[in-house]
Amino acid sequence: MAAAALRTAARHLAAPAALCGALASIAPLQRPRCNEHDERLANLKAEVMLLRGENARLRRALDGGGLDVEALRRRIADFAKERDWDQFHTPRNILLALVGEVGELAECFQWKGEVERDLPAFSEPEKIHVGEELADVLIYTVRLADVCGISLKECVPRKVAMNARKYPADKARGRSDKYTAYTSAKS
Predict the structure, then answer these.
(1) Which of 47, 75, 80 is nearest to 60 (CA)?
(2) How many CB atoms lie within 10 A of CB 85?
């Protein structure tokens, strides 16, 4: 999203810059005033710098190809705070937004039949769209945990360990049924 906005801003920057550049070759007294373009150019440059900063902060949230969940949580919280959206980010609203994004992700697979791993039948734009929807789901999941005061850094490893106990490899290997199908009932 930031990259697309950066490209759009760069395109907008080019037009007034080219115009003012062409006008610079005209003698100062003959040159029409381009204050409007100068101001627009300055605003767009500031916007590009802001987007570059946001992009850099987001890149820092990615830890060498891995995901630093805490840095991502802070970045998402900052993003909401900068826009004064905390007032809208209640657990219920974030959950409903998350459900909506899961629906948009599901639309990517709708009418595709059984889909193979790595999505070989998807075009490159379709794969990009799946990635964008997955990112939206992750962003809302991280934001929901944050507004609920839940540490994903703590609860995710705990849940993975819990699942490992519920689904021991020697009993669950190659089976898709629920763990209750092969665990003994406790007396």
Answers:
(1) 75
(2) 12
Which distant-in-sequence residues (6+ apart) come within 8 Å of 70 by Cβ?
153
Would you give the distance in Å from CA 4 to the centre of its chain?
Answer: 13
**DSSP letter at 177?**
S
- CA distance between the termini of the chain: 55
Query: pTM of the prediction?
Result: 0.64
Report the distance separating Cα 175 and Cα 169, nearest Å: 10
DSSP H helices in the chain: 2-24, 35-61, 69-82, 91-109, 124-148, 152-166, 169-172
What sign has the CA pseudo-torsion 12, 136, 142, 89?
positive
For residue 104, pLDDT beyond 90: yes
112-128 per-position pLDDT tens digit: 999 999 999 999 999 99
DSSP β-bridge partners for residue 63? 66
What phi and psi values does residue 176 have, to the nearest 5 degrees?
-110, 0
Cβ atoms of residues 48 and 17 within 8 Å:
no
Residue 138 three-state SS? helix
